[in-house]
Design brief:
- The chain is 48% helix and 10% strand.
- By secondary structure, the chain is α/β, with parallel strands linked by helices.
- The C terminus is likely disordered.
- It comes from Luteimonas soli.
- InterPro entries: HAD-like_sf (IPR036412), HAD-SF_hydro_IA (IPR006439), HAD_sf (IPR023214), S-2-haloacid_dehalogenase (IPR051540).
- This is HAD family hydrolase.
- Its EC number is 3.1.3.-.
C-alpha cells in the first residue's frame, strides 16, 4: 500500500523503547530513595505496596487521569503521610522518580529509524506517557510532544489526534500515526481520520475485523524503508 504522508505522529513507550525495564527501574530507585530519606515509608510501602497505593490513588482521582505526573506526586504524598513521613519530601522523591523514568534504552533500530523518518517528514510525539524527550536526548527529532497533561485528554480520544494535526498544519488524512497499542494508537488514530501504522514487535494477531492498520511492521526501520520507497518528497507541513 502506498499513500502520501505529510507528517507523522509517533507514540513513545513500547514504540521507541520498552517500558517494562523503566517501570522496574522506577521501583528500585524510589525504594532506594525512601530507604535513605524516609525509612519508615520504605518499610510501610515496599514496591508491591507502593504499586497498590498508586492504583488506589489513580482510581480515587479520575479527574487527574490526564496528568500522570500529578497522580504520581499525589501517590508519593500519600505514601509519606500514611507512613508518618514528611509529605514535603514528595517533590524530591518525584524528581528521583522522574529522572529514572527518563532513563530509556531504545529498541536497537529505533534511533536510526527515527532520524531517517524525521529527515523526511515532520514528526510529533503523541503519547499518553510523561517522558521528557529533551532529557532523553531525542527532542531534536520532534516538532513537539503532545500528551494528556497539555491537551486535557488522552488517546484514544480523537481530540488529541486532531490537536496534533492542527499544530502540524495537516488534515488528519495526511498524517500517519505510528504506535504499538491496538486501541490507543491504531484504533484511536483510525477513528480520528488519520492513517495508522501498527508497530508490532511481538508477532501478535490483529483482533479486529472492522478496522485494520494501514501499515503493519515489526520494527520502526521497516517504516523508514517504506517511507523511502513509497512516499514522494512533499512540501513540509507548517511548524507549531
Amino acid at each position: 500500500m502506498s499513500f502520501p504522508v505529510r507528517a507523522i505522529t509517533l507514540d513513545l513507550d513500547d514504540t521507541l523503547w520498552p517500558f517494562a525495564p523503566i517501570g522496574e527501574r522506577i521501583e528500585r530507585v524510589l525504594d532506594a530513595w525512601m530507604r535513605e530519606h524516609s525509612p519508615a515509608t520504605a518499610l510501610r510501602f515496599p514496591a508491591a505496596a507502593m504499586r497498590e497505593l498508586r492504583e488506589r490513588v489513580f482510581s480515587e482521582n479520575p479527574q487527574l487521569a490526564h496528568d500522570l505526573g500529578a497522580l504520581r506526586l499525589l501517590t508519593l504524598e500519600h505514601a509519606l503521610r500514611e507512613s508518618g513521613g514528611d509529605p514535603a519530601l514528595a517533590g524530591a522523591a518525584y524528581e528521583a522518580f522522574y529522572e529514572a523514568r527518563n532513563q530509556v534504552e531504545c529498541y536497537p533500530d529505533a534511533i536510526d529509524a527515527l532520524a531517517r523518518i524525521a529527515a523526511r517528514v515532520p514528526v510529533a510525539a503523541v503519547t499518553n506517557g510523561n517522558a521528557d524527550l529533551d532529557r532523553i536526548g531525542l527532542g531534536h527529532h520532534f516538532r513537539f510532544n503532545l500528551g494528556p497533561r497539555e491537551h486535557g485528554s488522552a488517546k484514544p480520544e480523537a481530540s488529541i489526534f486532531h490537536a496534533a494535526c492542527m499544530r502540524l498544519g495537516c488534515a488528519p488524512g495526511e498524517v500517519l500515526h505510528v504506535g504499538d497499542h491496538i486501541e490507543m494508537d491504531v484504533l484511536g488514530a483510525a477513528r480520528a481520520g488519520l492513517r495508522s501504522c501498527w508497530i508490532d514487535r511481538e508477532s501478535r494477531d490483529w483482533p479486529h475485523d472492522d478496522i485494520r492498520p494501514d501499515l503493519h511492521f515489526d520494527t520502526l526501520s521497516a517504516l523508514a524503508d517504506w517511507l523511502d520507497a513509497a512516499s514522494p518528497r512533499l512540501p513540509k507541513a507548517a511548524t507549531a
